[in-house]
Every structure is written in C-alpha cells, then in structure tokens.
Predict the structure.
Amino acid sequence: MATLLILDSSALPQGSASRDVTATFRKAWEEQHPEGTVVHRDLAADPLPHITAAGISAQYTDPAERTEEQRAAFALREELAAELEAADAVLIGAPMYNFTIPSSLKAWVDHVLIMGRTAGENSSVAGKPVTVVASRGGSYAPGTPRDGFDFAATYMEKVLNGALGLEVDIITPELTLARSVPAMADLIDKSDASREQAHEQAAAKAKALAARLAG
C-alpha cells in the first residue's frame, strides 16, 4: 500500500484555491488507490514552531553530547523527516503570500531539510514524487507586469528538487482573486480556465501516481 503525505498551508480554511485543488488530488488518489494511506498535515491549523538555534546546532552535535533543549528540538526534525521518508508521494498546497510561500510551509522546509540525511548527495528522499499546488491571486507569467516576482513556485522547485532531490511537478492555478477584486473583473474567464485546468491536472496526476505506486 502506498502512502500519500499531504501538506496544506493556506491560512484560509474555506475558499482557498490551493486547498480546493489538493482536495481534488486527494479524492482522485483515494478513488484510484482506496487501500492506500493518507497522512494529512494542516500547517495553518496546527503550525509547526519555527526552527531554533537548538534545532540547528543539534544537527552538528554528537547525539550523546546534546543538551536537553537540543534533543527536544531535534526530535521534531527527526519526526518530520521520518514522515517524509515514509511517504511514497507528497502533495503540497503552497499559495503565494507576498510573492513567496507561507511562513508555516517554510517552517516545515527548515525542519525536514537535514544535511547528510534528507539533503545532500545521498538524500534519503531522492526521487520521491511531490506535487506542488502553487496558487496565486495574480499572474507572474513571462510578459506580465510582475514577471520575475514569483518566489513561491521557483523556491519550491529549487529546495525540493535541488536540495532534497525530489521529483517535482508544479500545478499553478492563477488569477484566483479575479472574482473578488473589481479591478480584475476582465480576467475572470482566464481565472476560471486556470482553476479548471489545475483541477484536471491534479486529478490526472493523482491517478497516474496512484497507479504507478500501486503497481
């Protein structure tokens, strides 16, 4: 049985584009692979503490010589790293907040990126498939006024693939604010089309991964 790890980081419990698309992915995954396991972390509802000096220094301290504070801090990092290692596939909801990812998701990255274990030449998670739903209220595509301001999808690609060695696929529902911002009213059709495409991509990716891992 395959295990899917889901990380949602949108601060919005309802009306979130990224949560809607990750829900579509999960539904398709469970329909395709009902005997599989789903582990869900809601990083907004149950946020992780930001990494501390104790959590960082513990990584470079002999386990036998760690202080109680270092042991407690590193225990969380090991728990999260083990959860990532145990997953066969990962799904991450990563909405863009102020041109980058939510701090709740960055906290998760800081904890699980452990040099010599999950990161580096012999990464323990290398090759694991991860799908990132990188939603954004506007558009940052080439030729748009804010081309080059995307530090969300680009960051996730670099850290997940470049540092952890994961196999990354990014789904990008954009212009998600078109129906709520009057100045974007002329972009509603493009927004709806982008959202529909994102749901289709999520369902297709989930089915393909479930079939691949079940086989």
Q: What stands out?
A: Helices lie at 17-32, 53-59, 68-86, 103-112, 153-163, 188-214. The chain has a mean pLDDT of 96.
